[in-house]
Design a protein that fits this description.
Shape: globular
Oligomer: single chain
Radius of gyration: 23 Å
Helix content: 25-40%
CATH topology of the largest domain: Aminopeptidase
Number of domains: 2
Structural class: alpha/beta
Number of strands: 19
CATH architecture of the largest domain: 3-Layer(aba) Sandwich
Largest sheet: 6 strands, mixed
CATH superfamily of the largest domain: Zn peptidases
Length: about 450
């Protein structure tokens, strides 16, 4: 379904500008992990927000990278919509796998390629363009709008909680549109209603003062072996986490949620053979069991291991140190601090009390009920613009600071975006399709109209 004629004309006439804005934003590096260009990008984004009609400010007193905040308050509006986005991006490496410069914003064959194009700069532009179009056509917005964009999401949003806790009233809203999602393999828009919690840990262990000849392994304990043994003690061969109490607070899906999961599209064959290149899911999961585990199951994952010599050829050494990075994803009701303490106690109890235990980030899970009226607005607007029923995911399988908005501010929150199944977020050649950008602008216009006028 199209918008009314004046809005359609405005979207059509603004296509070139929308592409240029995505390119401008992507050409400004903003790699929070490397502190590369983040402050410069915040100033660029503030300028774009002002141009879209928002009153803006850059906030830095929370201790982290700049938060760009904008708002437009309508005197007679009954509802307030909050947009949450982030303008920081992942590092672009490995650079040799990119077909064009990762910060060039190059357009090829209807695609725009750049680090951050899908996650999350293209979504920012789609939302700002929708605001601009509504103001251009009608002279006012159908609801109050607040826009929060942070610069540290890709490193775990370590300071966002301080900003939210100090600005509860400023951020009050009736609904929050989260940073963005992607369409599925069959081009159906995906709406995500939650995010898993996260604990990110680094385990470090030391051995001898220097790397030694491996013949000394008869006499000197190898820290790499100790690390492997410690990691093995975290879960069994079926993937079940062995930490005491880890599953105590896991909330099982309701009958209604299981019924929805049963019907929810999930293209296993494509995922396995074409996209992931594996023969089966872990432990032979399939069907409802696979969907249930993906959306409702907590995890313990090894994200990286490093020790000793890893270069070309052979070098027989007994390494002096070893470390591993571990992420645990949690579901609602699981308490990160409680689990963190239990993991540390478990590691120590298995004979690894000398390990360094570094916590890099930690936050709760969050989920908005499918029955919430805000979800119905997000869903109905998608049906109108995309012409198909959207696929609703009860949660993202990944993590983000959504808990601050759902659990603390009590704002119903949903995510829908302009990415597609092949957008390659966090990978080389990240991209968006230009048609998805234009459709995303149309969607945001319809969504804001529906929220302001019918809810």
């Amino acid at each position: 379904m199209l918008l009314d004629d004046r809005l359609e004309v405005a979207v059509e006439e603004g296509k070139r500008e929308a592409v240029r804005l995505v390119q401008d934003l992507c050409r400004q590096p903003s790699v929070s992990a490397q502190n590369l260009g983040v402050k410069e990008c915040s100033r660029l984004l503030e300028s774009m927000m002002k141009d879209a009609g928002l009153e803006t400010r850059i906030i830095t007193d929370h201790g982290g990278q700049p938060i760009v905040y904008g708002e437009r308050i309508v005197d007679d509006a009954k509802r307030t919509l909050l947009f949450y986005d982030h303008y920081d991006v992942q590092p672009p490496e490995p650079l040799d796998e990119w077909k064009s410069d990762p910060f060039s914003g190059e357009v090829r064959d209807g695609f725009l390629f750049a680090r951050g194009a899908s996650d999350n700069k293209g979504n920012i532009v789609a939302r700002l363009q929708a605001l601009k179009i509504l103001l251009q056509v009608y002279g006012k917005l159908p609801s109050n709008v607040k826009f929060l964009a942070e610069g540290e999401e890709e490193v775990g949003s370590p300071f966002l909680h301080k900003f939210v806790e100090a600005n509860m009233e400023l951020l009050r809203a009736d609904g929050c549109m989260w940073e963005g999602a992607s369409s599925d393999a069959k081009d159906r828009p995906v709406i995500a209603l939650g995010a898993k919690g996260l604990i990110y840990i680094e385990l470090r262990v030391k051995g001898p003062k220097v790397d030694m000849h491996s013949s000394y392994s008869t006499l000197i304990e190898n820290p790499a072996w100790r690390l492997v043994e410690a990691l093995s003690a975290l879960r069994d061969d079926q993937g079940r986490v062995l930490v005491d109490g880890f599953y105590d607070d896991v909330e099982q899906p309701s009958v209604e949620e299981l019924e929805y999961l049963e019907k929810m599209p999930f293209d296993e064959e494509r995922l396995l053979k074409k996209d992931y290149g594996v023969d089966r899911f872990v432990h032979g999961l399939s069907g409802l069991d696979a969907k249930r585990e993906y959306f409702y199951g907590p995890t313990c994952n090894i994200a990286g291991i490093n020790s000793g010599y890893t270069g070309a050829g052979s070098k027989t050494v007994l390494p002096k140190k070893a470390f591993a990075k571990i992420d645990l994803r949690m579901v609602p009701k699981q308490d990160p601090q409680k689990i963190l303490a239990s993991v540390k106690k478990h590691v120590e109890s298995k004979g690894f009390a000398d390990f360094q235990f570094l916590v890099e980030s930690s936050y709760e899970a969050a989920r908005t009920p499918m029955s919430d009226p805000f979800v119905r607005i997000v869903e109905s607007s998608a049906k109108e613009i995309y012409g198909v029923n959207p696929v609703i995911h009860p949660s993202m399988a990944g993590s983000g600071p959504m808990y601050l908005f759902v659990n603390r501010l009590r704002i119903p929150t949903a995510s829908i975006g302009i990415g597609h199944f092949g957008s390659k977020i966090h990978a080389p050649n990240e991209n968006i399709r230009l048609e998805d950008l234009y459709k995303g602008i149309r969607y945001m216009v319809r969504f804001m109209q529906t929220m302001g006028n019918q809810w």
